[in-house]
Each structure stands twice: as C-alpha cells, then as structure tokens.
Design brief:
- The complex is a heterodimer of chains A (about 700) and B (about 325).
- Chain A is of the alpha+beta class.
- Chain A contains 16 helices and 26 strands.
- Chain A has 3 domains: about 120 residues, Aldehyde oxidase/xanthine dehydrogenase, molybdopterin binding domain (Aldehyde Oxidoreductase, domain 4, 2-Layer Sandwich), CATH 3.30.365; about 180 residues, 2-Layer Sandwich (Aldehyde Oxidoreductase, domain 4), CATH 3.30.365; about 350 residues, Aldehyde Oxidoreductase, domain 4 (2-Layer Sandwich).
- In chain A, the strands form 6 sheets. A 7-stranded mixed beta sheet of chain A has the order 3-5-1-14-11-12-13, with helices on both faces.
- The longest helix of chain A has 23 residues.
- Chain A is globular.
- Chain B is an alpha+beta fold.
- Among the domains of chain B are: about 50 residues, Uridine Diphospho-n-acetylenolpyruvylglucosamine Reductase, domain 2, CATH 3.30.43.10; about 100 residues, 2-Layer Sandwich (Enolase-like, domain 1), CATH 3.30.390.
- Chain B has a 5-stranded antiparallel beta sheet.
- In chain B, helix 5 packs antiparallel against helix 8 and helix 9 runs antiparallel to helix 10.
- The longest helix of chain B has 18 residues.
- The radius of gyration of chain B is 19 Å and the shape is globular.
- Classes of the chains: A alpha+beta (about 700), B alpha+beta (about 325).
- The structure holds flavin-adenine dinucleotide and iron/sulfur cluster (SF4).
- Iron/sulfur cluster (SF4) binds next to loops of chain B.
C-alpha cells in the first residue's frame, strides 16, 4: 500500500469554494438560469389512502399563465422500476397523504402555486392505518435491512441467559419520526433536448440519480445528465431519489420546456423521506460486576405500502459489547404513510439511543460507573463475526473524554446537584459508525502549465468534500493545493458513489489517490508533461472488491451536561463534548464541523425533534420550521469535538474512516443519561420535552 | 398566492376608507403573520392596505409615566425603549421572548395583538377548522392539542392566542385606541380579545375595517417591579407553552396590589383576576402564591394531552412571584 507524504492532508485547508459561496456566486439547483423556463407546482393528496376518481383541471387551466396540468390520466407513461415512490402520476392509487397526484405548470411560480390550489380532486377514500405499534398484526421480518444487512442475528441462547442473569435491564425505548431539514429544500430544473434529459438537482449523488432516473424514462443513463455543483445540505434526504425530481422531468417532457420545481418546506414532510419512528425493546443480562451475559435488542419500525425501507436500528448492537448470548431483530409494518429514508446515521442514531440508555440503566443497577461498565464489556474481536477490529479505540475515547470533561469526581447519585433553580446532571454514551467504501472512477490530468485537474462525480453537500479531495490530490501529486482543480457534482464526470453512509471521502479519495498516482507514474515515464497535456483514468472496482479480513468501524464517546428547570421541566444542554476515533483526520477544520454539526443534530434529536403524526388525517402535522423544532443557536452551548490518534492501515490509502454521521450517534443517549442524572427521571421516549420532566 | 392589490396610505382616515371601499381588503402591518397565512392559502385578501405609514411609529412617555405607543411601532423598537425597559420590564421581556430578531424588526404592535392562533389545523387549509373555515369542525379536540387551551375555550375551538406581548399588555391593562367607521373608540385589555364561544372565527371585539392606531399603557409605578416568564420547548424562537406576566406592589410583609396575566392557556391573553384577588392583602409567602395560583386554576379544564399545563402554570406563577418579592 502506498504511503502518502503528508503535506496538505491533515492541515486546516479553507474550503476551496468558500469565496464563491459567501459571495453568492455558487449556484444551487434552483438558481441555474435557463431560457424559456416554466414552473411546476405539485398537487398533494389530502387523503391518506384511497383512489383518485376524478381530477378537474378546468378551473386551473383558466388561470393566467397556466400551461398544463398533469395527472395520472394524461401524464407521460413511465417504466416500472423497483421503487414505486418514483412512479409519479402513474396510477390513481393514493398511498399516503401528501403524495403527488397532479402538477400544474405555469409561467411563474406564483401562478403555478395558486392554480395548484384550484385543481379539483375527487377521491374514493379508504380507511387509513398510520399508527405504529409494537403489537401490530401486520408486523413482518424484512429480508434485509439498510444498507444490505441481515434482519435478525442470534448467537448463543439469549433467552436462557437472560432468565439466569443476576442483574437485568428490560426497557422499551421509543424514537419519533424525524424529518431532515437541510437549509436548501429539494429543487430540480429539468430540461429535455435532442441529447436527452438534463437535471440540475440538489442531490447527494449525481451518478446514482442519473442511474435511477434513466430507466424510468426508458433511456440509457448516458442520455441523462445530472448537474449539482453545490448542495445546501442533505443529511440523507437527498441520497435516494424521491418523487419531486421525477415529477419535474415528467413535466418538462410533457411541456417540451425546461421546468423548475422547488419542493416547499411543508412538502418535505411527505415526499423526501424521513427517519422512521421506532419502538425498541432492549434486554441486558449481566453479572453483578457488570459483565454482560446477554444482549437482546428488538426494533419495530414502519414503511409505506408502496416501498420497503427497512432501517438497520439494532445493527450497532451487534458490534458494541462482548456477551456470549445475543440477538438483534427488526420488524416492519407497512402503513399508509410516506416511505421513510435516510436521515443522518439511519439506524445507528435511534438504535444507539436505546442501547446506550440501557447501558446507563445497567450501570446504575450494578452500582458501576457507566464508563467502567463499558470498559468491562469491551470485546476483543467483533462479537458478531469473530473478525479482529482493524482498529477500535472506544476505550481511549471514553478515557480521553472523561479527562477533558471532568468526569472523575462525578457523584453518581441522581437528582442531587442544584444550581439556583436548575438540577444539573452529566451523562455519557458511546458512539459508533461502520466503515463503508464503494467503487468509483476518476481521471487526473496534467496541463502543460503545471495545473492538475481531477474529475470525479463526487458530491459536496456542504461537508468540505471538494476541499479534502483537493488536499488528497495535491499530496499524491506532490504539488501545492493551488495547482489542483477538482471537478465534482456532475454525472458527466467519471462515475462515483453518492455522499452517504459516511463513505464519500473514503470512496472518492481512494479513486483520486489512484488516479493521481497513475498520473505521477505516467509523467515519470514521459519525463514531464507533454504539450497537449496528459490524462489518466482509474477504476477502483477491483481494489474495493477485496474482502476485508477486519471488522471496520469508527467509535466515539459523547459527554453531556444538562440543566433542568425544577419549576418548568425545561431541559437544556449546557455542555457537549465528543471524542472520536476515526482513523486519520484529513482536514481538522472541516472534520470538526462535521463532528459538532452531528452532535448538534443529536442534541436536537434528544430534546426537540419530533414529527407529530395526525392520526385522523394521516400526515405529519408540524410541517414547517416554526412547528418542527430544530435546535436554535440558544439551544446549542459549548460543543467541543476532539479525536484520538488512530493509525489504521486496513481502510484506504488515506487511512481515514467516515466522519459525517458518527457525531450524531450516541448524543441523544448522553443527553438522556444526563437528564436522568440531573432529575432521577429516565425518559425513554424522545424527545425529552418538559412535560416528561414536570413533577 | 393569489394576486392582490397593494396600497400604502399616509393617514388613518384614508386607510379606513380604502379598506371599506374594497371587499376582502385587509390591513397589513409587518406582514410576518398575514403574509405567511396568504402563502399557506389560509387567507386570501384581494387588497392589502399597508398601514405602517398611516399608523404612528412613535413612543411617547407621559408625565405620569404612562406610555403612548403608536400602532406601527416595531416590536424590536418597543422592547429597546428605555422607558419600557425601566418602567415596564415585563413588556420588554415579553417582546424579547417572542419570535426572532428579524421578525421583531418587522412586526408591529397592532399586528402582534391581532396575530392568529398557531393551531396546526388553522394553518392547513386542507383540514377542517372552525376558526379558519367556520362550521367545518374542530379536529384539534380529538387530535393534536398539546399546546392548546386549558381555560376559556369552547366546544367550537380550543386554540390559544400566541402573543407574548399581549400577555404583558393584558397585565398592564393597556388601552387600545381604535379608529372605527363611526369614529375613534378605546378598548381596555383584556377586553380586546374575545372568547371563542360559538363564533371562534372572531378573535377580537373589533369590527371589520377598524384600525388600531395606538396602545396606551396607563401609569402603573409598581410595574417597575414586574417580570415575564415564558416556558418553551426550544430555548428561543418558539411560541410559549405557558407564560406569566406579573407585577407586585409590596407593602411591609403583604402584597398591596398585583397584576397577573397568563399566556398559552386560553384563546385570549388571560388576566388572572381570581389570583390577583386572592393575593391582594395577602402576606408575602409562598403559601399565598400557591393559593393565588390554585384560585385561578380551579376553572381549568385541561384536554387529554395538556393536563401538564395546570401544574406548569402553578409552578411558574409561584416562581415568578417569589422572584419578584425576592424570596428564593
Ligand atoms: C416563526 C415565527 C415565530 C414567532 N414566534 C412568536 C413568539 O414566540 N411570540 C409571539 O408573541 N409572536 C411570535 N411570532 C408572531 C409575531 O409576533 C407576529 O407575526 C407579529 O407580531 C405580527 O405583526 P405584524 O406587524 O407582522 O402583523 P401582520 O402580519 O402584518 O398582521 C397581523 C394581523 O393584524 C392586522 N393588522 C395589522 N395592523 C393593524 C392595524 N393597525 N389595525 C388593525 N389591524 C391590523 C392584519 O390585518 C393581520 O390580520 C412569530 C412569528 C413567526 C413567523
Ligand atoms: S382549536 Fe380552534 S383553531 Fe384549532 S382546529 Fe379547533 S377550531 Fe380550529
């Protein structure tokens, strides 16, 4: 394996597109100026289940500016693909409230929106079922859970071990549905011409979106081009393709004109995915000294009736702690709700809330310090596969965090620390996230003037990926940062995996490294850059296909201090501190932003975020930012993120693990554990709102 | 949003005339509530008569310490005014606890008083709501009402009034100056807002077309000893769950006089008259404060999901009073 002489990598390089962004020159999907543009306003269903019997477009068509109204009766036909969410306007069936059932196309956005309110829709309404419950008669075991993991895993005999365990914890934890709210809502500009379809889209993966859209229209992926130079946040919401982009393409096809479609904030609560609510039962069996004998973690989640998304809620439990007897399961029920999808650390975030809360409960039951409990149950090898860990520094994170946070003199007694009217408490939780990597292609080109251009269809969704790839390329090429250009965000570039599963930098960085190595070799061979320049291409499929002999995961430790108002139950975080073990940190500045951003989102998950289901109407009621609370500045106190040195040769040429998601994992449990320490009240259903703490 | 006509008259009489001349016209203040409701399709005025020029944006301090506040004064400016901060701290605190800096810079005094409920059904034209779409029903009653009323509601509507500022003004007995079709008149708070009864679509006693031109705060020297405590789910930029505005006039060991108003509990900013009566002449002691809070709460009829508000109001009233009298 090549070792890279570090120069740019590891430094706090500024974002290469920073100036473009702060001066407003960076173009986001909705901002691309295109001639002859028209606007689309979707019409959402107002029933949660049933059939559209009639669509009356007459009034809408009389509105000034209106060009056309599409619905299932007149929309161009799409080919069937695996995900029925994408069969937009293809059938009269309504699978959830808010599903797109028509679209108005008009000359201006205002005209389109107003006319959309005038489209008359007649439904045959059917009784809907939107309630997730642990005893739902239609619960079933999915074949696999996201991204491609077994639904159930059992080792040993956990039931017997639990029955025999001297100390047990048996508790049910609930997490609500949550919605991603990136600053930039989803938006698409779609244009058809002789060459095919062009989509300016806010996406986490230009290649994967292209590959998903092409078959719907029965065309080759090479006839679709996705352009997404800048993306205003995604968190997973822009990972899988969702209905709006298909609707925009459909509308553009039908009208023959470029169509702009901006999803409203309200519509993001039905058509762009969300975190499934979960009901999780965790059972732990242990010796009085804290050594675990059994771990059972069962999760119940939902998906829609038209597409299965099965979240991997209990998979982190498979690798966290040593115990000879263990079982993790997932059960799903298909309800008349929108299809859930990815939201930062899907699975790990809610799953670790439950597991790490239960560990805190076990620590109390054993009279042990929660850090000590975790150290005692540190496994030698991956408990599920028996593989050695490529690196595992959870204990180092816990110890370093304890030192920095001031954990040593903590009195474990709950409900006894007062400061004025506040009850103060501290809590800890572990964090983990798997290492993923996907195959990519990349090209590297040397220009005669000493400039190098690297091309790859990667995505920078605000993470700093473009900058980090530039650093990686500069080091491999052994040139200063300023001589490297990295072109990303366009499916016309060499194919790349999407920004998801915290795998972007690992996947793209490997391809960039290999391309730059190949270019260096080529330049060595040629004795310099020829006057026409020189380009090399690489494909990491083979390298990526080699199975690893190691279990590869990132780890971390989260610490929280909270204050709970004794009169009102208002809980606020006073301090958050995280320490992470993530291999090599390639850019401390952008990495820190990822960690503290994730931790902030975890704080928000702990105390605030909840999509409130309206049982009568079947939708999520609080569908805007005034009602769906994400943490505001005043909620976010000192957030500190650190990392421990970790050298791991079994990952990728950079030696890095993904950092986009681990920051959110464990935060909610650390906060809930701190709330328990402060008040003596164990809140097992998020968010921890004041009514749950009012005594 | 439907196309609409926009006018910006320079004086109150013209504003009144323009509103009367055009059916479906509405006044526009800072627009932070009305424009949102238009975008959502909840309201669709055909004409907007912007009154930020017609209504004064001046604050006058009267010789006796009372205030005269033009209806066009922005929330941020009112909160920052030295006389408000010194003589009526509860009002400054209430204003600053509301919305965000950007919204307070736009929002006007009149618009704040007349903002509509935040009940989720009210804001969603695809759902029934007696207040927004009279006669369609009240789904909040059986649906989501965690943050709705425990006092003063009716079978027709269980919504709360969302304003923080109005709670302080209710405690202060502010007088609203109105220009009506038949000439000027005044309404003393809490009389501006009305309980829903069987007409929840009418939030206030104003007649259509009436223009608020000013709010007067009668002198209340002991209001210098006042505070506003707002309980909310998020640390800022969140509507109240429960709030209390309180002022006390101490004399020796007893409460000579007091003002208490509650937010987040009723369809109107709620003047806690029973609590005030209980407290007048009572000894300064936590037990008195508890008795006062309980006196007010005997009328409370919490809904299925908001019973916690009863205990919360009690705690917050007691704490606000203890803080004011300096007992910890
Ligand atoms: C996200 C968000 C959070 C918020 N949080 C809070 C909060 O925590 N606490 C709080 O108290 N408020 C909060 N608000 C509400 C805010 O305070 C109000 O929107 C604002 O005060 C309304 O004032 P405006 O001048 O913008 O009113 P407009 O929107 O212009 O008008 C509101 C109503 O008043 C009428 N009107 C305006 N002027 C007059 C007049 N002179 N005479 C007669 N009628 C008139 C209009 O016709 C309209 O019906 C929040 C708002 C938003 C959007
Ligand atoms: S509580 Fe009032 S505002 Fe809310 S739905 Fe019922 S009638 Fe409408």
């Amino acid at each position: 394996m090549t070792t890279v002489a570090a120069r740019a990598v590891g430094t706090e390089a500024d974002r290469v597109e920073g100036l473009e962004k702060v001066t407003g020159r960076a173009r986001y999907a909705f901002e691309h100026p295109i001639e002859d543009m028209v606007y689309a306003a979707p019409v959402p269903s107002v029933v949660a289940r049933g059939e559209v019997i009639a669509v009356d477009v007459a009034e809408a068509l009389t509105f000034p500016g209106v060009i056309d109204v599409l619905w299932h009766g007149n929309a161009p036909k799409l080919e069937r693909v695996g995900n029925a969410e994408l069969h937009v306007l293809q059938s009269p069936r309504v699978a959830y409230r808010g599903q797109y059932i028509a679209v108005v196309i008009a000359k201006t956005l205002e005209e389109a929106r107003e006319a959309a309110l005038r489209v008359g829709v007649e439904y045959a309404v059917e009784r809907h079922d939107v309630g997730l419950r642990a005893d739902h008669p239609r619960l079933y075991r999915p074949e696999r859970v996201n991204p491609d993991l077994p639904a159930d895993v059992q080792q040993g005999d956990p039931d017997t071990a639990l029955a025999a365990a001297p100390v047990t914890v048996d508790a049910v934890y609930r997490t609500p549905a949550e919605h991603n709210n990136p600053m930039e809502p989803h938006a698409t500009v779609a244009r058809w011409d002789a060459e095919g379809l062009t989509l300016y889209d806010s996406t986490q993966g230009a290649t994967s979106l292209r590959d998903a859209v092409a078959p719907l229209f029965g065309i080759e992926p090479s006839s679709v081009r996705v352009i997404a130079p800048h993306v205003g946040g995604g968190f997973g919401a822009k990972g899988e393709p969702h209905p709006p982009v298909v609707l925009a393409a459909l509308a553009a096809r039908r009208t023959g004109r470029p169509v702009k479609l901006a999803v409203t904030r309200q519509q993001m609560f039905s058509v762009t995915g969300y975190r499934t609510p979960t009901i999780q039962r965790v059972r732990l069996g242990a010796h009085p000294d804290g050594h675990l004998t059994a771990i059972v973690h069962d999760a119940v989640e939902q998906s829609s009736t038209i597409h299965e998304f099965a979240e991997q809620t209990t998979t982190p439990t498979r690798i966290m702690y040593a115990a000879p007897n263990r079982r993790t399961t997932h059960r799903l029920v298909r309800l008349d709700v929108p299809t859930p999808s990815w939201m930062r650390a899907p699975g790990e975030a809610p799953g670790m809330f439950a597991l790490e809360s239960a560990m805190d409960e076990l620590a109390a039951a054993c009279g042990l310090d929660p850090i000590e409990l975790r150290i005692r149950n540190e496994p030698e090898v991956d408990p599920e596969t028996g593989l050695p860990f490529s690196s595992r520094n959870l204990v180092a994170c816990l110890r370093d965090g304890a030192r920095r946070f001031g954990w040593a003199d903590r009195d474990p007694a709950p409900g006894v620390r007062r400061r004025g009217r506040l009850l103060i408490g501290t809590g800890v939780a572990a964090s983990t996230y798997p290492v993923y990597r996907s195959a990519c292609q990349a090209t590297a080109r040397a220009e005669p003037g000493g400039i190098f251009t690297v091309r790859i269809a990667a995505a920078d969704i605000g993470t700093g990926a473009r900058t980090v790839l530039t650093q990686i390329a500069a080091d491999v090429l052994r040139v200063p940062l300023g001589r490297v250009r990295v072109a990303i965000g366009d499916s016309a570039l060499p194919r790349a995996s999407l920004a998801g599963g915290s795998s972007g930098t690992a996947s793209w960085g490997t391809a960039v490294t290999r391309a730059c190595e190949a270019l260096r070799d080529e330049l060595d061979r040629r004795g310099g850059t020829p006057s026409t320049g020189v380009t090399v291409s690489v494909d990491t499929t083979e390298e990526n296909g080699e199975p690893s002999r190691f279990a590869r995961h990132a780890f971390g430790a989260q610490f929280a201090e909270v204050g709970v108002d004794r009169d009102t139950g208002e809980a606020r975080v006073r301090r958050l501190l995280g320490v992470f073990a993530v291999g090599r940190v390639l850019n401390p500045k952008t990495a820190r932003s990822q960690f503290i951003g994730g931790m902030t989102m975890g704080l928000s998950m702990a105390l605030l975020e909840e999509s409130v289901l309206d049982r009568e109407f079947g939708d999520y009621l609080n569908h805007d930012l005034a009602q769906y609370h994400v943490a505001a500045c005043a909620d976010v106190p000192a957030v500190e993120a650190y990392w421990v040195e970790e050298s791991d040769p079994h990952l990728n040429p950079m030696g890095s693990k993904g950092i986009g998601e681990i920051g959110i994992v464990g935060t909610a449990a650390a906060v809930a554990n701190a709330v328990h320490h402060a008040t003596g009240i164990r809140v097992r259903d998020l968010p921890i709102r004041l009514d749950k703490l009012l005594t | 949003m439907r196309p609409f006509v926009y006018r910006r008259p320079g004086d109150a009489r013209t504003a009144l005339a323009e509103l009367a001349a055009e059916p479906g016209a509405m006044y526009l203040g800072g627009g932070t509530n009305l424009v949102d409701l238009m975008r959502l399709g909840v309201l669709a005025p055909r004409t907007l008569v912007d009154v930020t020029r017609a209504c004064s944006d001046a604050i006058e301090v009267r010789p006796d310490g009372g205030l005269w506040i033009g209806a066009g004064v922005r929330n941020a400016d009112l909160a920052a005014h030295p006389a408000v901060r010194r003589r009526y701290p509860m009002l400054a605190q209430a204003l600053l606890s509301g919305a965000s800096g950007q919204i307070r810079n736009m929002a006007t005094v009149a618009g704040n008083l007349l903002q509509r409920t935040r009940c989720a059904y009210f804001q969603d034209p695809s759902k029934p709501c007696n207040k927004a779409r009279p006669g369609t029903g009240c789904p909040a009653r059986a649906g989501d009402h965690r943050n709705l009323a425990i006092l003063g509601y009716s079978d027709f509507c269980v919504a709360t009034h969302p304003s923080d500022m109005a709670v302080a003004l209710t405690a202060l007995g502010a007088v609203v100056h109105v220009e009506g079709a038949a000439g000027p008149y005044t309404v003393r708070m809490p009389g501006l807002h009305r309980l829903p009864g069987d007409e929840p679509e009418r939030d206030t006693v104003l007649e259509p077309g009436d223009l608020i031109i000013a709010v007067e705060i009668p002198a209340l020297p002991y209001a210098a000893c006042s505070r506003y405590r707002k309980v909310r789910d998020r640390a800022s930029f969140a509507f109240t769950v429960v709030s209390v505005a309180a002022a006390v006039d101490k004399s020796g060991g007893t409460i000579r006089d007091c003002r208490i108003a509650l937010g987040g509990v009723a369809p109107v900013p709620w003047r806690a008259e029973r609590a005030e009566a209980e407290l007048r002449g009572a000894p300064i002691a936590e037990a008195s404060f508890r008795r006062a809070a309980d006196a007010e709460l005997t009328a409370a009829r919490p809904l299925t999901e908001n019973g916690f508000k009863v205990a919360l109001v009690r705690n917050v009233v007691v704490r606000a009073l203890l803080d004011l009298v300096g007992v910890s």
